[in-house]
Design a protein that fits this description.
Oligomer: homodimer
Number of helices of chain A: 13
Radius of gyration of chain A: 19 Å
Largest interface: A-B, 71 and 70 residues
Structural class of chain A: alpha/beta
Largest sheet of chain A: 9 strands, mixed
Number of strands of chain A: 11
Strand content of chain A: 15-25%
Distance between the termini of chain A: 26 Å
Chain lengths: ~375, ~375
Amino acid sequence: MAGSITDRVAVIGMGCTKFGERWESSGDDLLVEACTEALSDAGIDAKDVEAAWVGTLSSSMSGFALTRPMKLDNVPVTRVENACSSGIDAFRNACFAVASGMYDVVLAAGFEKLKDQNVRGLGTVYAGHPVFFSTTTGPGAFSLAATRYLGRFGATKEHLAKIAVKNHRNGAMNPKAHFRREVTVEEVCSAFPIAYPLGLLDCCPTTDGAAAAVIVPADRAREFAKEFVRVKGLGLAVSAGTGQILDDYDYLHFPEATAAARQAYDQAGITDPLRQLDLVELHDCFTITELILYEDLGFCAKGEAKRFVDDGVFEREGELPVNTSGGLKACGHPVGATGLRMIYEGYQQVLGRAGRRQLPTCDLAMAQTLGGIPGMFVAGVAIVGR
Amino acid sequence: MAGSITDRVAVIGMGCTKFGERWESSGDDLLVEACTEALSDAGIDAKDVEAAWVGTLSSSMSGFALTRPMKLDNVPVTRVENACSSGIDAFRNACFAVASGMYDVVLAAGFEKLKDQNVRGLGTVYAGHPVFFSTTTGPGAFSLAATRYLGRFGATKEHLAKIAVKNHRNGAMNPKAHFRREVTVEEVCSAFPIAYPLGLLDCCPTTDGAAAAVIVPADRAREFAKEFVRVKGLGLAVSAGTGQILDDYDYLHFPEATAAARQAYDQAGITDPLRQLDLVELHDCFTITELILYEDLGFCAKGEAKRFVDDGVFEREGELPVNTSGGLKACGHPVGATGLRMIYEGYQQVLGRAGRRQLPTCDLAMAQTLGGIPGMFVAGVAIVGR
């Protein structure tokens, strides 16, 4: 049976670039920006980094992606590629290496430079895969879940819109978000259609960015930093499915997300996530994704999410704030960076550094990513806290 | 300072496909073949695999690469991509996860399906990289090292040829090698020129294949298997260079290989590798690579390798047998598989299962990979033993 590394590793510094259309910056520039902020926050010199992990879907290759821009000559650097969970899985592997006793100071970074790559950054990167993305796009695949969910449970485009409104409201308070303007339910519902029922404002944008974390053994954290968070749980679940309509799949569940969350909940001792978690950053690549995740992560029963949305449970002032950063919806989704950007939000909130977005209480924060399409996901979870 | 996981994890089963032109098999087929053999060797059912790592340069994407063919639904699978060190780095990360206490039974696999991809599997996969492989090919880049080394140290094409002859002789005894025929010094020296001084028989072929390992905590190994090997040392060193001629680089050293070996030697308590190691599987992508590695891995002083070759030190009957499997030269080099295929040779030799290739004594075996081009390498090392 799987064990745990709960409370044995700590994050002593983090960094995150401004997310957005970073035409002026290369992928190297973004990595340097995020890693330098993380190292500076931790009070660690780059030469003291013993090993590193870098997550990217398609913006570079091999450990060179990080050694060259950061001048980490002959340092062991692993490139992790795990679709939209690349960043969280880079973090996960870095945590294992520290918990194993092999290293004491490691860096986990994630980035993506999507604007220069145009669509190469998304769908077509999988063109060589035997089944994946051969006949569909992200919005097209998730629209299948949206039509099915709305039809089955009587949710409406307005319920989806309320999620976009919430995340844009939060994002307006996040200086690192791609979009910092609020939107209304009316604007979301009347936005240009992308793949029915998803309109432009139901979709996350195409964004450049990077984020990074410095990780050490928890029993040594205080030697390095006054403030830090502990890693409480790590989950990863990868589908064996093919993401095709011919699969026996109902489009109402993301079972990989449930499986990954269960791993992390078990490690962190969480039996009632709605009450025990203080913040969740989850993978709102589309508004429907967030709606279904409320249920699959165990915050409410299947089909109940619309009522929870109407009740404001996941608002910043609600019982379980979700995506206080603005989520993928407002921050954007530079693929390899996203998981670490979510952990960054949790880190800031737990340490009381979230500025205007600061929650009154935040002792336990979860980051959750979902890579792929319905029927074929890589789901990742990281829980950090005091 | 870096620590160690020496003797804390064990390999209880391994598998390796026949390497070669596997037109009849997909990448999925190859992975299933190698993983099934490894699981069967370990006496482990696929459903007992708690987590996995899969190394591939370009033959698939994300953890899906392994979950789908092996039907490991919702299992955590990380794809590691680290150039020609992808397989050894997948193994390394799997070892860390077991040593961390998170998992007790994990799988590390590596594969590449190169024949169907043609050159996509090699040079052009890096076409998007800002500097790498923009103006050169593998043979072209290593020919720079060969001309420089031959000119500086007075080695000859015959010294290189003797390495090819040795590895083909070993490969002829390996049922899983791509090429199983012996060659003569004369044949190697007069083979079709590829990039002077490297001819066709100085170069490894383009090959399909997969290899896999089942890894558990060493203190539980005996519960699972009667025979196993322990992991003694793991090294990885990634260059911050650009692999371009304009770099300040002498083409006579592979410093990344030295750095990675030093990490593993320190962990395994090796101060005199020539005498302490019983077998080395090293990265002979070209004959010149093997020649330079004799020096950079510490078997002899710089410039001395040709004398050691003439003295037969690295023959199967010599003081330190190198590439008893036949190496990349005879086995071929399916990129993501190579590191694990080397560990497989060490595993077989240590357990006395190497058939006609069996060494009289083999208690400590090293696998060593080198990804990239001179001036820009990812070097990996894994040492296993009793």
